[in-house]
Design brief:
The complex is a heterodimer of chains A (about 850) and B (about 400). With about 850 residues, chain A is an alpha/beta fold. Chain A is built from 38 helices and ten strands. Chain B contains twelve helices and 15 strands. The chains are: A alpha/beta (about 850), B alpha/beta (about 400).
């Protein structure tokens, strides 16, 4: 087969043909048609005349009135078959029903032509001449494609006339086109019922030419179809056939456009945009439609589906239309272009991607734009055409602006894309990219953007500008006019710096010179704004502190040496105290070990006696203490006292440190560390003429005295009346148990209580005492219990602390009785024996009190059930 | 009533001639399309070229069931499909035996006209034979009416040439009828004595002209229970010579003996028979267009008489006709055909029939339809298959 030639095929009922015997058979065929293709063609070349045409009555005129069939389909081999069938009446044997099929076979889709263009070919054979079939069949010659389509009817102008000559045809065509798109989803084929053969052919022509030539392979057509069982994608029909045109066919089996009765199927919405646009072009601007078809064919698009709609949109964008493409359509078109970019039309596709991005609606997400940019970058890397790179650079700049202006989330992606882009560029192209970013037009755009950007957006923008300045050789970048201009615009937009100023500092990364220069610039500008009245004079400190808060994360990302180096560089500068204090606050607040962090800071920054150190030491310590938990506050304060650093502190801070340090002083006489700390605190308090409140040092002295006095006969220290309940409880808990454990007689027990008794803290005393009793061994009534029992049974209102102890007497005796009652048999017997032998209980009055006590104890004995329960409970 | 045991037996699809078991048959949803959306059936399209959206195919239950509920619309469907080709099976599938008759013959032998009048005669005169013939599906009703009955009986014109099954798959679809045998019970009441499904195949002459085509589209032939071989006597040179050119002679076509040879070979291959095995399928060799050759037939011959199959098959009449036809063939130079049939086919009979009773060849019109003895070959085949008793003497 020679390309652009068509092979031929003749089929009819005849005497001689390829079958070797008379009858239905392929009469003749071109060399090159395969056997299977011939079989398939024979099936396609099936013709039945309409039943209502009296084809058996008068041969010639009637035969001319019977509709011809012009059928187009694609064979399994991929070749396109165009078959024309003409009813011829009788066959060689005189029997009715004969027809002649003349087929043309093309290699694949017709390039640049529509199958309907062959309809008017003058070379169609309609019948065998008399006696022809008595000769042996000869191979049919191939026909040049040009010859077949040279007299093409159904030009676009004719189709426009056809569409406009009757009302409603454009709307019908639109519906038909949607129906064709629907077939991929619901397998319903299109059936057009017409009165006249030529009208039907026009409809087929309109439908074919609504799609590019490259898509005709999926648009099989028949201008007259008799049998609904083997309907093609598009079928015209007329007269009485096997089609029923009932509801089943109209609503469910086919998309029927019955132009005889006017009853058409409802076509669900599908690719209406394509149908409407193409119909409109066909009816008003056929040349544009033709150009679109050429555009599509250039890309070899073969399927009638969503891709065609994507191509239509891309084409319209290429033509300069602005389309408000929804996100999903944008991505769909982009996916198609990405696929096409793998083909031979790469350069053109890249231009289309550019058009897609530029012509699309602003609502397209940054992710989608970046995806488009990726397609461009990948394509440009393959194409290696400077013009493509220029396009990429322009789009990158546009996309960057769009992304930065519209989505914080996409900034990372944008950066990533730039990374991908840069990775594919050589040094010179990188400079070009940077230059494209720093064009005066783009700088203007960036300046206008600044006021609308989020902090993240500004940061990204500044980073890119700094990077671009570095790439184009504007060193140092922090002195670049573009950089300063952007900073000034951003600052003017928010002169009080209420927000985050990292966007100004981040771009300079670890460049101390850059950071310092920018900080100086910021402070200078703030002062100018204060002079201009943009900042209230009393807000200047707050503004500086705001700068410091922004500085902290920058320095925090540096190593300690670099950070402290930077701080030491700027601490001498005027106006930096608030900045650095704020920086310090943020760094301390973010630290898990704030004390260590500050000590390191103090060591590196505050130990040089500089004015900054002088001014900040106390302020920072106080701030630090505020930031610490209470326990850590006292530990830090004790540390400072022990290390004598507290002596360098100013009065108020020093008093607070000493008070906090005193909280670390214990009441245990044997704790020598506390003793030393207490002495240091006492000295410093004395020197500074301070008064601690609460005075734990006095409390410690009282405790030591109570526990170490040789005679043990000390009274309750006066200091106890003035301590807080917590301190008193600590005092009693430290002193009382040790005194009671040492008591061997009731009198000594009473003396111990007298030492700690304090009317002010009655409850704390009772609680501590009862806790002491409960801490004694539960299984035996020991020495301390006996002494306590003797003391409390004998206690009466003659005691010095009667009102206080009187209140405690009954709960204490009940506690003792409960303990005795719950003891085991042996323990009780032992205790009773001891009571019996104790001289003190010889006294009848006490004996009587003991008996009452023992009755209480018996009453406290648990029932056998309770004892069993306890055994079971373990 | 069909028993589950029976359902385990293999059944033959009268459309694609593949065997299957009832438990593996899918069903087709029969709900109105408005209730249950139709869908394409790729299997039906592959076998029959029918790409319409039809009722949903409901998968088989893999056990014997009389119907399956559609998962989409919930309606129980009893329309059983062949699992191989998805053709709608007769509702009696599995209950009644399928009896397949193929009508074969050279091109222009008159096969379609024979089938048109045979079916009409069986419908009209079935009562005398205690037979009731009814179409089994709409497709059969429509196709018989459009392709056979209307042209002959209403439009009085010859039937158009049958398309090759290679080109038109519709030709491969048979006409399916039920044939019910009735009788008289005690008290004189009519009773049904049994029924079979009759499957008629009309064949395009072209499709018998090559062995490849024959085996590709006519494999039903070796599955059939009876063959009617129509022979056009006007193709016999002796007859043509005796009648002369004024008799409206048709073109010379394929030799009938060639067709018999091909059919014989097809059956042998299809049934796995050896070269020396005789074909067990009854073969009725029927000379069509007999009205045209009547002038050449002895006036004393039984062939001139009307057959009287009263209540059954008239075997005496058959034997007379059979003898007469063989004698005529011997006279007309058709000894080779007789010899071939006698050697290859265990059961055979020779008949003379006229579907139309007239010759439309020259005028293109059927002036009157007077079928003659068209039912003879068919009744003989029924009798040979044990489906029809002897006629009353």
């Amino acid at each position: 087969v020679i390309e652009a030639h068509a092979l031929q095929f003749h089929y009819t009922s005849c005497r001689r043909g390829l079958a070797g015997s008379p009858g239905w058979q392929t009469r003749a065929i071109s060399v090159g048609v395969e056997h299977e293709e011939r079989r398939e063609l024979e099936r396609i070349a099936r013709y039945d005349p309409p039943r209502d045409v009296p084809v058996h009555l008068a041969p010639e005129p009637v035969c001319d009135a019977v509709p011809k069939t012009f059928r187009v389909t694609t064979l399994s081999s991929g070749r396109t078959a165009v078959v024309r069938m003409v009813y011829v009446g009788k066959d060689y044997s005189g029997r009715w029903g004969n027809f002649f099929a003349h087929g043309l076979l093309f290699d694949g889709p017709l390039v640049g032509r529509w199958p309907i263009d062959a309809y008017a070919w003058s070379g169609w054979v309609s019948r065998l001449d008399d006696g022809d079939d008595e000769r042996e069949p000869q191979p049919l010659p191939p026909i040049p494609l040009e010859e077949i389509t040279e007299n093409a009817d159904f030009s676009f102008d004719e189709l426009r006339t056809f569409l406009l000559e009757a009302d409603g045809r454009t709307q019908l065509l639109e519906q038909m086109l949607m129906a064709i798109f629907r077939r991929a989803d619901d397998a319903r084929r299109l059936v057009i019922r017409e009165r006249h053969e030529l009208e039907a052919v026009y409809w087929i022509a309109c439908l074919q030419k609504a799609f590019p030539t490259s898509c005709q392979g999926s648009l099989s057509c028949s201008t007259f179809q008799f049998d609904p069982r083997n309907a093609l994608a598009v079928n015209a029909t007329m007269g009485e056939t096997d089609f029923l045109f009932d509801e089943g066919e109209r609503l469910h089996q086919f998309y029927v456009f019955d132009l005889v009765t006017g009853r058409h199927s409802d076509v669900p919405e599908s690719h209406r945009e394509y149908a409407r646009t193409v119909t409109a072009w066909m009816a008003s601007d056929p040349q544009r439609l033709l150009r679109f078809h050429e555009f599509v064919s250039d890309f070899g698009q073969r399927d009638i589906g969503p891709e065609l709609l994507d191509l239509l949109r891309v084409y319209r964008l290429e033509c300069g239309e602005r389309l408000a493409l929804p996100e999903v359509d944008f991505r769909s078109a982009l996916a198609l272009l990405r696929t096409l970019s793998l083909g031979p039309q790469l350069g053109r596709v890249l231009g289309l991607v550019g058009g897609l991005v530029r012509g699309s609606d602003a609502s397209i997400s940054p992710e989608s734009r970046i995806e488009a940019l990726r397609v461009l970058v990948e394509g440009a890397a393959v194409a290696e055409n400077p013009a493509h790179w220029d396009l990429v650079f322009r789009l990158w700049v546009d996309t960057f602006d769009h992304v930065v202006a519209n989505s914080d989330d996409a900034v990372q992606i944008a950066t990533l894309t730039r990374g991908e882009l840069v990775a594919r560029l050589g040094d010179s192209r990188r400079r070009e990219l940077a230059a494209a970013f720093l064009t005066s037009g783009h700088v203007e755009r960036m300046l206008s953007l600044m006021g609308r950007l989020s902090d993240e957006g500004r940061t990204r923008l500044m980073c890119e500008v700094v990077l671009a300045c570095q790439r184009v050789g504007q060193q140092p970048a922090y002195e670049a006019a573009e950089v300063r201009a952007l900073i000034d615009v951003g600052l003017r937009h928010e002169p009080t710096c209420g927000g985050n100023l990292q966007w100004v500092l981040t771009p300079f990364g670890k460049d101390p010179d850059g950071v310092e220069a920018i900080l100086v610039h910021l402070l200078t500008r703030c002062e100018e704004y204060a002079l201009e009245g943009l900042i209230a004079p009393d807000s200047l400190a707050a503004v500086r502190r705001s700068i410091g808060r922004s500085l902290s994360p920058i320095l925090g990302a540096w190593g300690d040496a670099e950070r402290f180096g930077m701080i030491n560089r700027v601490k001498m500068r005027e106006g930096f105290d608030d900045v650095l204090l704020s920086e310090w606050e943020v760094s301390i607040a973010a630290s898990s070990d704030r004390v260590r962090k500050h000590l390191q800071y103090a060591e590196e920054v505050l130990s040089d006696g500089s004015p900054f150190a002088e001014a900040m030491q106390g302020v920072m310590l106080a701030t630090l203490l505020d930031a610490l938990p209470r326990d850590e506050q006292s530990a830090l304060a004790a540390d400072w006292v022990r290390s004598t650093r507290s002596r360098t502190l100013a009065g108020e801070v020093a008093a607070r440190v000493l008070a906090l340090a005193s909280q670390r002083v214990t009441l245990v006489p044997e704790d020598h560390g506390s003793e030393t700390l207490a002495e240091r605190i006492e000295e410093e308090v004395a020197e500074r003429q301070l008064r601690l409140k609460p005075d734990r040092l006095a409390l410690r002295r009282a405790a030591v005295r109570a526990l170490t006095a040789a005679d043990g006969k000390v009274g309750a220290p006066v200091v106890l009346d003035h301590v807080d309940p917590s301190s008193y409880r600590e005092f009693v808990a430290s002193v009382l148990p040790r005194l009671l454990n040492n008591a061997r007689r009731a009198e000594e027990h009473g003396q111990a209580l007298n030492v700690v008794a304090c009317e002010t803290h009655q409850r704390e005393l009772a609680d501590t005492y009862l806790t002491f009793l409960s801490d004694c061994p539960a299984d035996r009534f020991g020495q301390a219990d006996h002494v306590a029992l003797e003391y409390w049974l004998a206690l009466d209102d003659s005691n010095t602390h009667w009102p206080l102890l009187g209140v405690m007497r009954r709960p204490v005796l009940q506690a003792l009785a409960r303990k005795l009652g719950e003891m085991g048999r042996a323990g009780r017997a032992e205790a009773r024996a001891r009571f019996a032998s104790a001289p003190v209980f010889k006294d009848p009055a006490l004996r009587s009190r003991l008996d009452v006590f023992l009755d209480w104890a018996d009453a406290q004995r648990p029932s056998w059930f309770e004892r069993l329960r306890r055994v079971v409970a373990g | 009533m069909l028993s589950p045991l029976k359902s385990a037996n293999r059944t033959l699809c009268p459309f694609c001639f593949e065997y299957f078991q009832l438990r593996e048959t899918p069903f087709r949803c029969t709900s109105p399309m408005a209730r249950c959306e139709p869908e394409p059936d790729p299997i039906l399209e592959r076998h029959w070229g029918d790409n319409r959206r039809l009722g949903k195919v409901l998968p088989p239950a893999w056990r014997f069931v009389r119907g399956i509920k559609c998962g989409s619309c919930g309606k129980v469907s009893r329309r059983r499909l062949c699992p191989h080709c998805h053709a709608d099976l007769p509702h009696t599938t599995g209950s009644y035996k399928n009896v397949i008759f193929a009508i074969i013959g050279a091109k222009e032998a008159g096969k379609s006209h024979y089938l048109a009048t045979l079916i009409d005669q069986l419908r009209v005169n079935g009562g005398a034979l205690n037979l009731l013939l009814e179409a089994m599906n709409d497709e059969t009703i429509a196709r018989y009416r459009q392709d056979f009955y209307d042209p002959v009986y209403r439009e009085h014109r010859p039937i158009s040439a049958t398309a090759s099954a290679l080109a038109d798959r519709r030709v491969q679809r048979p006409l399916v009828y039920s044939l019910t045998r009735v009788g008289t019970g005690l008290g004189g009441r009519s009773v049904i004595r049994g029924a079979v499904v009759l499957v008629f195949f009309d064949t395009a002459g072209e499709d018998l002209d090559s062995e490849d085509t024959l085996s590709a589209v006519n494999k039903y032939i070796y599955r059939s229970d009876g063959l009617v071989l129509l022979v056009d006597p006007l193709q016999l040179p002796s007859v043509r010579d005796q009648l002369g050119s004024g008799a409206g002679l048709p073109n010379m076509n394929t030799e009938t003996s060639d067709i018999v040879t091909r059919v014989t070979r097809l059956v042998q291959k299809g049934r796995g028979l050896g070269e020396t095995d005789r074909i067990p399928i009854p073969l009725a060799v029927a000379f069509s267009k007999f009205d045209a050759v009547k002038p050449l037939v002895d006036a004393q011959f039984q062939l001139h008489n009307v057959a009287r199959h009263d209540g059954g098959f008239d075997r005496h009449d058959f034997e007379a006709i059979n003898s007469e036809m063989m004698a005529l063939l011997d006279e007309w130079g058709g000894q080779d055909l007789v010899h071939q049939v006698k050697i290859r086919y265990a059961k055979h009979g020779f008949f003379g029939v006229s579907a139309l009773g007239c010759n439309p060849h020259t005028t293109g019109r059927i002036s009157h339809v007077v079928p003659q003895r068209v039912e003879d070959p068919f009744l003989w085949l029924l009798a040979e298959n044990g489906l029809l008793g002897r006629a009353k003497q």
